[in-house]
Each structure stands twice: as structure tokens, then as C-alpha cells.
Amino acid sequence: MKKEHFVDYVEIKVKGGKGGNGCVSFRREKYVPKGGPDGGDGGDGGNVILEGNENLMTLLDYKYKRIYKAQDGEHGKGKKMQGKKGKDLILKVPIGTVVIDKKTNRIIGEILSRNQRLNVAKGGKGGRGNVHFVSPTNRAPKICEKGEEGEEKEIILELKLISDVAIIGLPNSGKTTLLNKLTGTDAKTAPYPFTTLTPNIGVQRDSSSRRYTICDIPGIIEGASLGKGLGLKFLRHIERTKVLVVLIDGTSNSPLKDYEVLLREIKSYKPSILEKKKILVINKKDLREFKNPFKDKSIEISALKGIGIQTLREKIEELLNE
Predict the structure, then answer these.
(1) Segments of the chain with pLDDT less than 70
(2) Which residues are CB-neighbours of 117 under 8 A, at least 6 positions away?
(3) Which of 31, 113, 126, 148 has its CA 20 to 30 A from that of 273?
(4) Separation in Å, CA 185 to CA 204, 277, 307
């Protein structure tokens, strides 16, 4: 997935289809002297429905087109013929999409599984034909109902990627290099901060050939919880992850301080994230400046040279299988 194609927040307008009008009609039968009302009902308008699709990883499709309307119901016809229901409009979204009513800021629902559906704008009900308005005092009513307008909303789609493993760390700690080494992806890396501007995602299979996903989050810096840097913007993507790989640069001036900064900023954002299973990983073991104040509480690796990667894979599998 190209970085410029990653979109995790959009605002769109959705509108259910209008219900069809009921019909005013009377029978014209040869041997029925007075005939009778036979106007059919209008069809209901279509709904706007979101559907989870596991092949999507971005909300890019909704960045440029902002208005979505389902089909209107058809009007009723004579001979008690009901109008056809309007077609539902199915909008496919990535798994992990949160749907928020913009007006009330309340969560309408979340798409958490493949093919899960969520009705976000109901179609209007079709109007009744004149056959429903017959009474002892009005045997030939010339009235019917108009179809109702469909539900209309402005909604926010916010994507929270559902990855099994998330790699978090300060800028230039080697997150993307580690992702590439673990999953064989080819995400961009460079020796300067903020190479990663959006989350990268890779897929790996464990020893039992079960598939799991790994993402790396743009670097978190001190003050991220106050809006500094890039990492805070994407921390929503680790709210649903199962395992955190906390990556520390072993050539930093103070790996211990880096670790404390990282945990403090995440705690300020959402303390419950730190309750997840964590693996502390110290990177850049191949370099002379490498130091590890955490000793046996961590795994030492070189993401660039592949040192310790197999040990890390095994630890990830162990935690995912628990």
C-alpha cells in the first residue's frame, strides 16, 4: 500500500432513498358496475449500508466523493400493484471502521468483521394506495399517501486498523526496517526522523501457517499527547492490537529515557493500551554504540542485519497463541 493512498478519516453524507407514492386507481371491469379502488402501495426507499471488506486497508474511496444516496422506491400502480423497493446502496469499508454521527458525535456502530453490515441511513417508507382508504362512507376514495423521505445523515468514518501486532517507538528507532524484515514488505526507510508518515502494514504466517498482521506506527515523540509530531494521530490504530512490540534504539544517548518517554506519551493518550501484551526490543545490536540497560527483560536485535529476528518471531507467536 502506497503511503499517499492511506486515508483513515473521512466525513460523508448519506441519504436513504425516498419511498414511492401510493396510487389512486379504480378498477374498470366489464361486469363490475361501480368498479372499486385498486391503487397499490409505493415501494420503500433503499438503505445505505456499510459492509466490512477484509481486502481494504484505507478509506481512500470516500475522500473525493462525499455524497451517497440509495435508490428511491417506485410509485404504486393500479390493480393493487406495489411499487418496486429501491435498491440498497452497499458501501464497502475496511474492517475496523468506526461510524460516528457528526451532529451528535455519538458512535453509530463499528465494522469489526468480514461482511458485517451496518445500516447508516434507512430508506423512506412507501405511501399507501387508495385501496387502504375505503370506508363505509367513502367507497371510492381519491386519496393516497406520499412516500416518506429517506433518512439523511452526515457521518464520520474513522479507521482503527485491526492488526495483531503493532511496532511502536521513537522516530528513527528502526520500526519500518523491522517490519520489512519480519514480513518481507518493502516500505520506505531512511536515516532521518519521520520517514514513516502513515502506518505500514505487513502480513506474516506463524509456524502453523496461520496469518497475522503487523503494522508500524509513525514515530512518537515527547509531547505527542499534546499534539506534537505524527505518532499521536495514528495511535488509534493500536487500540485494537493484541501485542505491542516496543522498539528502542540501542545507540540512543539514553535508551532508558526513550522507553520512559514512549510509555508516558501512550499512557497520556489512553492508559488501557499499556495493559496489552508487550515485547521490549532493543535494536541496532550490530553497531558499536549499542547498549542495553534492560538486559534479560528485552530481546536484542539488529533489524538491518537480521540478528535476533527469529527469536522475536517466536516470542510474537507465543504471545499471540496465549
Answers:
(1) 1-5, 30-34, 185-198, 219, 221-234
(2) 49, 50, 51, 52, 90
(3) 113
(4) 10, 24, 18
pLDDT in tens, 133-182: 988 888 889 999 999 999 999 999 998 877 889 999 888 899 889 998 99
Residue 17 and residue 19: Cα distance in Å, rounded?
6
pTM of the model: 0.72
| 317 grid coordinates | 507467536
Q: What is the pLDDT of residue 188?
A: 55
Q: Is 55 left (phi over 0), alpha (psi -120 to 50) or beta?
A: alpha
Closest CA to 82 of 145, 31, 28: 145
CA 286 remoteness from chain centre:
39
Q: How far apart are alpha carbons 105 and 238 in whole angstroms?
A: 22
Distances in whole angstroms, Cα of residue 54 to Cα of each of 213, 217, 307: 12, 20, 33
Residue in this structure with the C-alpha cell 362512507, named with its chain if needed: 137
Residue 239's pLDDT is 83
pLDDT for res 3? 43
